[in-house]
Amino acid sequence: MSTLAISPAQSGDGRALRWLASQEALLSFAIVLIAVLVGLYNPRFLATRNLTDIVLGNAYVAVAAIGMSLVIVSGNIDISVGSLIGVLATISGSLAVAGVPMVLVWLTPLVVGVLVMALQGAVVAYLRIPSIVVTLGMLSILKGGLISVTGGRWITDLPQAFHLADIELFGLLPMPVLIMVTATILAALWMRYSASGRAIYATGGNAEAARLCGVSPRRTVLMVFALHGLFAGIATLLFATQLKVIQSTVPPNLELTVITAAVVGGVSILGGVGTVIGSTLATILIAEIASALVFINVSPYWIHAVQGGLILVTVIADILRRRRRQVGG
Amino acid sequence: MAVLATEIRSSAPRWLIRHETLLAAILAVALAILCVFNENFLTIDNLLNQGRLMTEVGLLALPMTFIIITGGIDLSVGSIVGLCAIILGYSWKNLGFPLPLAVVFAVGVGGVAGFVNGLMITRVRVPPLIMTIATLALYRGLAEGISQARSVRNYPEWFFFLGQGEWLGVPMQLWILLAGIVAAGIVLDRTTFGRTLYAIGHNETAARFSGLPVDRTKLIIYTLSGLAAGVSAWVLVSRVTTTRSDMGTGYELDVIAAVVLGGTSIFGGVGTIWGTVIGLVMIQLLKNGLALTGVKGDATIIVIGAVLIASTLIASSLHGRREVAS
């Protein structure tokens, strides 16, 4: 597989071949393959309702994974995002119940998300504390803060207008899908074609070289974390506004699901490599696998083991592929 | 190698004086405040009971100190605890193992889980952070999958001796922790193996070129971490008398916080077992003190998170200043 991934690129054998060997193509292929195989076993899997549920229910993961991809491409990691989304959902829900105008209800998570992440980004970039320590600390601050402030109470009686995720544009295009696709495309274009987007790859690939080329790695890391906070805010909206009840417990393992999506999507955990189209496709693949397990009568308790196995295999494949490329090149 | 060793020896005492005196001072102040606020705090019963509660995290903190000294990290320890606890209960209840064999099997599975981490880190060169995030998910997932959310209860009476009994008036598990602390302290301070850990943390490439067995050393410490998680799971199950797949969730935070608070640098090359012990005691007393003064359990994890970030900041600023000075 790795020779397939490398040789077309090296020999310049045309774009089509190169695309076929890309992570995005592999993911698309896997998504279709699983749909066909599970569909043959249990045709109910291919019901329109099930397929849309897979995408609708996980659009927020995909949006959060866009931000995570930026962070990982820049050579960092964030394990606080799950707790942050829990906190933002509670803030947004509380404001809605308190009768605050909807625009503010929807904007506040975005602003708070950017502030919290920018703070972490500043500590990582300017005080040079590894992102793992900062976000591990923030994880416990947010998680502990959420439970102590809410006292474990759930937010109920959310006003009808709150449910942004239920809106369907022109009666057929659901909001979460629209936002997921738009955010993915915009982020992909920005990362590929803009100078600030390229700066993320430069910083993650080799921060010292980036600095010598006139890129400020510190400012880039700060910007990446701030943007990650923005995506976390958007993800919160898609997540919270599809719920009837907002629980004060953080969605368990959400940060792991988001990291898995980014890594399975082809973002190299060593930094410098990856696309957000990959992370969005990977989100859909992971959600599809979770749903497929149910349809082939495997207990849903195995889902985290499957996710963990998936992340492990992708990481090892990524590292082996890189190593071979270094030897070959 | 000789130069490296002298460099370490000459820099260590100065650092020791700074960080551990600071810690001891903070600990003394915290103790004083806790005593004033609560008369139940400074009773033998309370303190011994805190020792009981400290053991599971403490056992994990010893190999974690080794790992962080080499510049690595193990985020999967909490999940290994959960996996081992489930294996213990499952192999006894469902596979019909005699209970002592189930314990040995569970600890062995912990060792294998740690060995797998070490193998991928040394052979495939997966960064420790990434490898153990992946196995954090994988091992917890295996625990959930194997247990199917069923808990195991009704262990025989003798099994609870380790977690609830005492010997010479001291909780049973505290003896295990004490033995572990002494052993880890001697290994780190007095053996070639221990010095190798510092050398790897200071400069891995240099350590390799000096002919030190870098990969074998790393493989051993990650395996030790898994074994410690197995023993920790055994102690935990014996103490709480039941097995659930979410056991040990979040332990990695407490463990890393204790080690980092104890002065082991997350950048590698610096740290002592004694520092870790002080860090461990501080966190446990902080938790206990806050609980006794009426603060809920969830608020204490805020404090641990804040302490973790703050102590890294302080350590790195001391570290930076020393670099500038020398």
Can you put this structure into words, describing what you see?
- The complex is a heterodimer of chains A (about 325) and B (about 325).
- Chain A has helices at about 1-10, 15-20, 25-40, 50-75, 80-95, 100-125, 130-150, 175-195, 195-205, 205-210, 215-240, 255-265, 275-295, 305-329, and strands at about 170, 175.
- Chain A has about 325 residues and is an all-alpha fold.
- Chain A has a domain at about 45-255.
- In chain A, strands 1-2 form a two-stranded antiparallel sheet.
- The longest helix of chain A has 26 residues, at about 50-75.
- Residues about 1-10 of chain A have low confidence and may be disordered.
- Chain B is mainly alpha-helical and about 325 residues long.
- Chain B has 13 helices and two strands.
- Chain B has helices spanning about 1-35, 45-70, 75-95, 100-125, 130-145, 160-165, 170-190, 190-200, 205-210, 215-240, 250-260, 275-290, 295-325; strands at about 165, 170.
- In chain B, helix 2 (about 45-70) crosses helix 8 (about 190-200).
- Chain B starts with a helix and ends with a helix.
- The interface of A and B includes residues 79, 134, 145 and 303 of A.
